[in-house]
């Protein structure tokens, strides 16, 4: 009889526990896992390291504020190592092993393109701090992918606006032979005619280039008014040094891929006086008080410098915005993967981030306009806001 009563009591306890689990609110859990796959090693580490810092900062702030519904947020990180293969491996590990709710990253357009099929099949939202428009278009085939970074189309439009103001009529382009560089080339080809400018010469360079004087000489011979340089990594700095060696007087205007401290430190004085596309956060102190990024950028820069001892670059700002969007999606939903995706597409309206003012829709997973970029001029201290932007 005693054993029968014990068994009955045990079974009632098990049943009660099961009912308690079922009765928990949807999405309730001990931790909310957010994934990040960023290039903290390899050729794009100058992007991935500050991005990783920014995501860690966002998650730390969320936990210091009490987490979400009293539960801790856990950041699960994988190094995508600046290669497509490692990005795919990182995505699969985050999705299948860590069971993350959403992913921030990767750092490069090529890596993001490689991860698109993985997150699409698994139905996990991926927010990529990259430039390439192919990552999010066509939207019908990219419904799980968002690009909270300034796209190559916006960067090229900014360059063409500057060309118009400067009176340049003939442009040449020097681009890296990778997904990022080719995206800039394609956007230039698409937008140049409507800007009243001709694209008279195209030259490319591989990622391991150490001498770009031959390409620069061809652009000079073409008689272009200015050279648009759209690339990543060490060769981008070599362009300016080679131009000085050639005593090239033709202006070189850079896309936003060079708007980072690694590039600025590598190129030194060779870039002083040249225009470069960048984000408002890089020159936040010069922005007018009415600018929507003024206060949020000041806050982000202050907190980032206090924690990491250096100022953030624009790509850190994109990663910070991406992480905070995911966190807000979890707060305002039950925290399921599909709910996070739907929240991003339907609820990110006039969202003021460090990067810009976001408006995601079912037709636009980029969400930014041209005012998310500014034109800067390189100076001895870094860069300053172009006069006409003030």
Automatic annotation (TrEMBL):
Residues 31-377 form the Leucine-binding protein domain. GO terms for biological process: amino acid transport. Residues 1-28 form the signal peptide. Keywords: Amino-acid transport, Signal, Transport. Gene3D superfamilies: 3.40.50.2300. SUPFAM superfamilies: Periplasmic binding protein-like I. It comes from the Bacteria. The keyword Transport applies. Belongs to the leucine-binding protein family. This is Leucine-binding protein domain-containing protein. It comes from Afipia broomeae ATCC 49717.
């Amino acid at each position: 009889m005693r054993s029968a009563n014990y068994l009955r009591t045990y079974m009632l306890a098990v049943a009660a526990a099961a009912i308690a689990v079922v009765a928990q609110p949807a999405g309730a859990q001990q931790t909310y896992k957010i994934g990040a796959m960023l290039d903290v090693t390899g050729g794009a580490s100058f992007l991935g390291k500050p991005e990783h810092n920014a995501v860690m900062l966002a998650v730390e702030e969320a936990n210091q504020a009490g987490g979400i519904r009293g539960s801790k947020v856990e950041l699960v990180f994988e190094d995508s190592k600046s290669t497509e293969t490692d990005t795919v491996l990182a995505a699969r590990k985050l999705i299948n092993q860590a069971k993350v709710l959403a992913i921030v990253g990767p750092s490069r357009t090529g890596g993001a393109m490689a991860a698109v099929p993985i997150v699409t099949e698994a139905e996990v939202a991926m927010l990529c701090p990259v430039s390439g428009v192919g990552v999010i278009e066509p939207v019908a085939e990219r419904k799980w992918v968002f690009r909270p970074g300034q796209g190559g189309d916006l960067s090229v439009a900014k360059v063409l606006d500057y060309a118009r103001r400067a009176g340049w009529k003939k442009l040449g382009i020097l681009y890296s032979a990778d997904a990022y560089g080719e995206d800039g080339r394609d956007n230039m080809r698409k937008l140049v005619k409507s800007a009243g400018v001709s694209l008279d010469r195209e030259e490319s360079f591989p990622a391991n280039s150490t001498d770009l004087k031959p390409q620069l000489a061809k652009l000079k011979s073409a008689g272009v008014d200015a050279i648009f340089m759209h690339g990543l990594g060490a060769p981008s700095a070599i362009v300016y040094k080679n131009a000085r060696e050639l005593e090239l007087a033709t202006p070189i205007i850079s896309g936003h891929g060079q708007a980072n401290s690694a590039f600025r430190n590598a190129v030194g004085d060779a870039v002083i006086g040249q225009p470069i596309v960048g984000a408002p956060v890089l020159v936040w102190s010069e922005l007018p008080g009415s600018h929507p990024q003024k206060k949020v950028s000041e806050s982000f820069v202050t907190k980032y410098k206090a924690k990491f001892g250096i100022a953030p670059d624009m790509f850190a700002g994109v990663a910070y915005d991406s992480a905070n969007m995911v966190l807000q999606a979890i707060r305002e939903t039950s925290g399921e993967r599909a709910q996070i995706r739907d929240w991003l597409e339907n609820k990110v309206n006039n969202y003021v981030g460090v990067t810009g003012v976001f408006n995601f829709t079912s037709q636009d997973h980029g969400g930014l306009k041209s005012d998310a970029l500014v034109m800067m001029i390189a100076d001895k201290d870094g860069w300053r806001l172009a006069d006409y932007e003030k």
